Amino acid sequence: MQYVGAADPTGCVLCDKLAEDRDAANLILHRGARAFAILNLYPYNSGHVMVAPYLHTADMAALPSDVSADLWGIAQRTVAALTAEYRPHGYNVGMNLGRVSGAGIPDHLHLHIVPRWNGDTNFMPILGNTKVLPEALDQTYERLRPYLQVADHDRQT
Ligand SMILES: [Zn+2]
Who's near 130: CB < 8 A, 6+ residues apart? Predict the structure, then answer.
């Protein structure tokens, strides 16, 4: 568990990682205009990515539309990358809002993108605390980074 334990427990782990200039170590896959993609430190499955706004907010209802658009665009690119590299059978895509919902970082919105394979596990553990340790995080990072490192304005597709 080499990536665990660096963050200030009183601060926001997402904002802390954004403020640092070491995206590979922090497993940040992509920085967009208003949002970014980062690997979940506690993946429910191989390829578990979170997409979050730069804006530190828990208020989904009040998220500015340009932020929503960038967040969703990065989510679409992430699914495309996962499909190309991992060929999952499906996905769970969603947000947990509030600690009662199971949100691990309740003060900073983030969209979970979890690839699913037939027979990988039941649905419920995805929303709970089950940890299946699938693939080493640095390996997942190396596999997905090529798809997501190109800036939006440099994309050819
Ligand atoms: Zn934050």
Answer: 44, 121
